[in-house]
Amino acid sequence: MTGGDIINYNEVVKICDAYLLPLVSELYGLEGYEIKPVKAHDGGRNVVYTCEKEGTYAKILRIVFLNDRSREDILGELEYVRYLFEHGGSVSDVVSSLKGNLLEEITHNNHIFFICLFKKAKGKMLVENHYRYREGAPITEYYYNCGKVLGKLHQISKGYTPVHRRYSFYDKYNAEYIEKLIPGSLSLLKEKLVQLCKTLEELDRNRESFGMIHFDYNDGNYSIDFDNGQISVYDFDNSCYCWYMFDLASLWTNGVGWIQFEPDAGKRKKFMDDYFKTALEGYRSETRIEDSMLEKLPLFIQVNLMEGIVDAFEAMRNNGEEPECDEWLSYRIKCLEDDIPYMGFFRDIYSCEQPFEYEERNI
What we know:
Order of helices and strands: HEEEHEEEHHHHEEEEHHHHH
Radius of gyration: 21 Å
């Protein structure tokens, strides 16, 4: 958006229904499609719809309304997704408009809305299947495939040269931005976040270790075809230049859900070691990762925590809310402030009755 007042999600939905959807239908030839809203998740930055019509594949329509991303940013994302798809990556491809554009924009009352359309991924999310994997297949197949699909995306990224370049990790995760975003009462957290950024600055950034990554790789951002186990990845709107290890650390944190209610920390540790070993075998079947980078897994789990904290405060700011720390956010802050590794999953701070929660912090 440029100009005009900040508008919120509900206002955008009304504008979509009254004005945008008929125009979008014309731009993409969606006449005759049933267009239904997708329930927004916490911190969601887009208005999303499913578009379905008998005899053709389903599509996902995304309308970007916040002014935190430029046209170049979004084009950079869409070009990257198209490149991954064309080079064999298991991703939901972008659908071009009837004019042949990956991205369309519509201006209404001085607000710019960016429009893009994707093929809907085959299958469904794990949560939609009540976290049951496909019948007759071991769950280790899923762990392996999660790593394999990610490894393939990273391998393709190593050969990627953008037309519209996405931002880099450091454009956002730096002392200046942290100072501006994080409330002043959380001075120790700010100190730890800045320290983390400085530690990362010393890491190698060669083509084998640093490139375009998904930056939000988790089971809410891919679907599984339960006939064959194939995973299709989507939601690349956080994608940026970063270390490949960040996505691998996300892969590690994804695993905790399978064992989070186990009271014995030793058993949790054994499970996580086995889970990540299997996921890593899948990953290494597609691309290389140096042992020296893998040793930095604890560091990148902390960086994942940083991303979650920054994202939470951004969501509050974007929604015009006063900053607050619920149990979820307080837990993550505590892990960073006290240098607790592995999300505290093997420490006394962790409770299997209330996973990843800590007493609310007043700020």
